[in-house]
Design goal:
By secondary structure, the chain is α+β, with helices and mostly antiparallel strands. It has 2 helices and 10 strands. Strands 1-4-9-6-7 form a 5-stranded antiparallel sheet, with no helix packed on it. A hairpin with a 2-residue loop joins strand 2 and strand 3. The N and C termini lie far apart (about 85 Å).
């Protein structure tokens, strides 16, 4: 399964792309097999039911995470009250105790599911956050899309789309200087340096420079 993180403000449906109508309903209990138990700390449950008991095929589930660490998805089919697990403990945050992945966008397609997601009447999202750092966690902007529609495109800020790619450094192939010429110039610079150093060492000491002894009469106060 792949999660796509987006920096933009949302994942819009786009032209000709309409999510399936469904009504979110928080679940009071977490359905486990044939029985039920109260939702535990660190666990949240959200039910999505299609109106008037209609059944639909699911191609893609798009949502924005909000500090949920793990996600499981179950589906319910017509004429049955049994929940079938089609996604189990999918990791949304690499580490539940850090910010990474806490508010990313995710897209889950039917190929990533463990079971068939055709003709479902309801979906149950089981959210887990084992870290005590985050007191509130959920999933937002939840949309269900039927087959035959492309994945939604993220909206990026206008300033980001206007950025130009970094300039490539100029190629040096075919523009390297002649190595013999460079060697000759370096030798000339070395000879010139040695000549200047020799001249500085042989320069005559000035009359007012101290060189072991000096004439007191030549001193002056400044």
């Amino acid at each position: 399964m792949s999660g796509a993180a987006g920096p933009g403000p949302g994942l819009p449906a786009g032209p000709g792309r309409s999510p399936l109508p469904c009504a979110p309903r928080p679940a009071a209990v977490l359905q486990l097999g044939g029985g039920a138990e109260p939702a535990r700390p660190g666990v949240a449950v959200i039910d999505l039911r299609f109106p008037r008991g209609a059944a639909a095929d699911v191609q893609e589930i798009v949502f924005r995470n909000f500090y949920t660490a793990f996600l499981s998805v179950r589906v319910q089919r017509p004429g049955s009250r049994r929940w079938v697990t089609c996604l189990r403990d999918y990791r949304l945050m690499p580490c539940p105790h850090t910010e990474e992945g806490s508010q990313d966008y995710f897209s889950l397609c039917r190929q990533q599911m463990l079971c068939d997601v055709d003709q479902v009447t309801a979906l149950r999202f089981i959210l887990r956050q084992p870290s005590p750092v985050w007191l509130h966690f959920t999933i937002e902007e939840l949309q269900i899309f039927p087959p035959g529609q492309k994945s939604p495109q993220k909206d990026f800020p206008s300033w980001l789309s206007q950025l130009t790619p970094p300039e490539q450094p100029p190629s040096l192939h075919g523009e390297l200087p002649d190595p013999e010429k460079v060697s000759t110039e370096v030798q000339q610079m070395w000879v010139l340096t040695e000549v200047i150093r020799a001249r500085q060492a042989a320069a005559r000491i000035g009359r007012f420079d101290v060189d072991g002894c000096y004439d007191v009469n030549l001193l002056s106060y400044t």
